[in-house]
């Protein structure tokens, strides 16, 4: 028996199937798949501790394919091993082994075998949606962080392309992995030297990546990615390396289109083999098998998958969360030393209520350790530091690397955690793609952007979140694969609502985004008030018009309503704190209140103006809509009122707009 012969033989077999399935699909990346034939074989048939019949096992090792376009080689191996898939639209109880015929349905609209790894459509071997390059290593780091929290011995192998390594997020993830001594993450770089349109830059060369990874603090093994013995030897060092704190990274020199000369060289990326060329490519792969001496080789137990270690009830999978009920508002504030402020009737900033709620969540969930806090070096401003101090083992400091933070959170979610990410709302925009990929993959992601809107004033527009409402609102009207809104959006106007909404977010199975104010604000709600997705509150009754607003602008609209009342006009004020907004009731109020709505918000267009405008258009209601929002690029002002007045959003200007 020969391990090398067995790996070579299996690499040829799954390589052929990856070519065949991309040809059947009429699209795909067979040449990239062939470059990974040996590495995927070594991992899936021998190195990884997992069970193809139970890919959901929370103790199993995982393979994260960051260069998601190479997924046909993974599908080919998975089909050969009979790994479980779930027919599209069905539940786990309908799972069955994947077959070669399933592989040949690659990219079909009714197939769970998607064009890139996608756990939500029935491929549970994938932990996250990948394919938007540069994100997989962060996901692996999140999975590894969860394993560290739970004390589970499992490894996470992440395959990336050399051209992909130009993405800065990979190096954010590398920093994070070294910072947190995550020796259970094994980055593997597929160095086939060819990107999509050209050769990779010398900066991403085999030698260059080896040097960079060493400089970042990894123990690096540079190997021939088509040598079974070199792959085995490098992976075999893992148990020894894991006795220390420096993680292992593998840089593998490979050939794009390995085994088939007609599939090699430039111009082959993303191009399936034409049907009339299949015989030629298969003949070349057969010749490669002959050259390697494995054309007639029969496998006889050389490749053996070891089962995962038993972990009892330590780990859980995604979407299996237990409800969390936190302490009442006053008790939650007392946990972080704010009871005196509350007793004195002082104004309290919503961002502080967020920090208190996070601590209350950790306290209520102490036995299960579901809640994990993440922040990007602003925890003293978001007040996530309170959670970090109280629950250091459940806190992941990500430093100034928001893209990595959101993808780490996606990995944590895939391991059954409830990740709460916080940073300034302005900096959330740095990770919009990462947030979207997390949403696509079904991540239970919770994002709170503090210092939201324009009222932080003095720092100016570089620190103001203004397009974020439109971005997240667009997901509010999209259904995820569980039939829920892809994002539940919130913008609390006071500390009570922020505290209660943070609790609500923890108990929603799906992505949430919350804007939290920096400013100390008046308390609008009683501690026992309840909140819901899409909800609103009538904070002032009126009969002549309706202000529909959220966040800081609720307070400005209340001031405006006071001024209007002096002139004999009674304006209703509605705190529309969540989207997708339950607009029917708001329109009914407006019809009874003069048939007029003014939306007021301190963000760019695409928020409440769009939410109410579309509702009016779809209902046909006889309601006149006027929208006040940020119409120009802001600038610094020493006080919030300075900026609001500059933008035409101060209380006096709101009155003038009536």
Q: Would you kindly provide a written description of the structure presented here, covering whatever features stand out?
A:
With 658 residues, the protein is an alpha/beta fold. The protein has 3 domains: 3-291, Rossmann fold (3-Layer(aba) Sandwich), CATH 3.40.50.970; 329-452 and 491-516, Thiamin diphosphate (ThDP)-binding fold, Pyr/PP domains (Rossmann fold, 3-Layer(aba) Sandwich); 537-657, Rossmann fold (3-Layer(aba) Sandwich). Helix content is 39%, strand content 14%. The protein has 26 helices and 19 strands. The protein has a 7-stranded mixed sheet with strand order 9-8-10-11-13-12-17, with helices on both faces. It has a 5-stranded parallel sheet with strand order 1-4-5-7-6, with helices on both faces. Strand 15 (545-549), helix 22 and strand 16 form a beta-alpha-beta unit. The longest helix has 23 residues, at 3-25. The chain is elongated and about 95 Å long. The N and C termini lie far apart (86 Å).
Helix content class: 25-40%
CATH superfamily of the largest domain, called what? Answer: Thiamin diphosphate (ThDP)-binding fold, Pyr/PP domains
Total discrete domains: 3
User: Which secondary-structure class do the elements indicate?
Assistant: alpha/beta
Task: Give the amount of beta strand, in percent.
Answer: 5-15%
CATH fold descriptor of the largest domain: Rossmann fold
User: Quick check: average pLDDT?
Assistant: 96
Strand order of the largest sheet: 9-8-10-11-13-12-17
- In quaternary terms, these chains amount to single chain
Q: Give the biggest sheet.
A: 7 strands, mixed
Low-confidence sequence ranges? none
Span of the ends, CA to CA: 86 Å
Number of strands: 19
CATH-level-2 architecture of the largest domain: 3-Layer(aba) Sandwich
Shape: elongated
């Amino acid at each position: 028996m020969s391990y090398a012969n067995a790996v070579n033989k299996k690499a040829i077999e799954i390589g052929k199937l990856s070519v065949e399935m991309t040809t059947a699909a009429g699209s795909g990346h067979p040449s990239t798949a062939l470059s990974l034939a040996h590495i995927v074989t070594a991992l899936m048939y021998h190195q990884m501790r997992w069970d193809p019949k139970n890919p959901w096992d929370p103790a199993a090792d995982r393979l994260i394919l960051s260069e998601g376009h190479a997924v046909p080689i993974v599908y080919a191996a998975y089909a050969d091993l009979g790994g479980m898939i779930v027919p599209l639209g069905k539940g786990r109880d309908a799972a069955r082994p994947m077959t070669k015929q399933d592989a040949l349905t690659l990219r079909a609209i009714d197939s769970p075998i998607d064009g890139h790894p996608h756990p939500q459509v029935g491929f549970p071997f994938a932990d996250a949606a990948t394919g938007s390059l540069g994100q997989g290593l962060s996901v692996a780091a999140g999975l590894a962080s969860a394993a560290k929290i739970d004390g589970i011995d499992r490894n996470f192998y992440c395959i990336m392309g050399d051209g992909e390594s130009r993405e800065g997020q990979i190096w954010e993830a590398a920093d994070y992995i070294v910072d947190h001594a995550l020796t259970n993450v094994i980055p593997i770089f597929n160095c086939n030297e060819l990107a999509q349109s050209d050769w990779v830059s010398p900066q991403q060369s085999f030698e260059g990546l080896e040097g960079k990874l060493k400089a970042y603090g990894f123990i690096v093994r540079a190997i021939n990615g088509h040598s079974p013995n070199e792959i085995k030897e490098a992976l075999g060092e893992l148990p020894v390396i894991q006795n220390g704190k420096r993680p292992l990274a593998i840089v593998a020199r490979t050939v794009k289109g390995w085994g088939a000369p007609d599939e090699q060289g430039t111009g082959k990326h993303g191009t399936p083999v034409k049907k009339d060329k299949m015989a030629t490519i298969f003949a070349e792969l057969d010749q490669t098998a002959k050259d390697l001496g494995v054309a007639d080789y029969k496998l006889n137990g050389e490749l053996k998958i070891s089962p995962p270690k038993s972990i009892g009830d330590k780990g859980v999978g995604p979407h299996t969360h237990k409800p969390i009920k936190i302490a009442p508002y006053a008790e939650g504030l007392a946990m972080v030393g704010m009871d005196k402020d509350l007793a004195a009737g002082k104004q309290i900033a919503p961002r502080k209520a967020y920090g208190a709620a996070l601590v209350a969540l950790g306290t209520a969930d102490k036995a299960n350790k579901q809640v994990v806090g993440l922040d990007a070096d602003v925890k003293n401003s978001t007040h996530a530091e309170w959670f970090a101090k109280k629950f250091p083992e459940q806190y992941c400091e990500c430093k100034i690397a928001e893209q990595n933070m959101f993808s780490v959170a996606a990995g944590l979610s895939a391991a059954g955690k409830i990740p709460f990410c916080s940073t300034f709302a302005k900096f959330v925009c740095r990770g919009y793609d990462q947030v979207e990929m997390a949403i696509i993959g079904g991540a239970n992601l919770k994002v709170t952007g503090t210092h939201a809107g324009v009222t932080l004033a003095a720092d100016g527009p570089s620190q103001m979140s203004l397009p974020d409402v439109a971005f997240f609102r667009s997901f509010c009207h999209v259904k995820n694969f569980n039939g829920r809104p892809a994002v539940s959006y919130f913008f609390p106007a006071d500390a009570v609502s922020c505290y209660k909404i943070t609790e609500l977010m923890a108990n929603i199975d799906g992505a949430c985004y919350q804007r939290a104010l920096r400013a100390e604000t008046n308390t609008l709600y009683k501690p026992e008030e309840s909140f819901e997705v899409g909800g609103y509150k009538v904070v002032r009754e009126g009969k002549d018009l309706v202000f529909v607003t959220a966040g800081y602008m609720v307070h400005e609209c209340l001031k405006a309503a006071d001024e209007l009342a002096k002139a004999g006009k009674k304006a209703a004020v509605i705190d529309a704190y969540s989207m997708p907004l339950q607009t029917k009731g708001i329109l009914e109020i407006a019809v009874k209140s003069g048939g007029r709505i003014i939306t007021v918000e301190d963000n760019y267009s695409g928020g409440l103006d769009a939410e109410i405008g579309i509702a009016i258009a779809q209902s046909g209601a006889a309601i006149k809509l006027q929208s006040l929002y940020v119409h120009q690029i802001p600038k610094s002002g020493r006080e919030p009122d300075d900026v609001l007045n500059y933008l035409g959003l101060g209380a006096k200007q709101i009155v003038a707009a009536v």
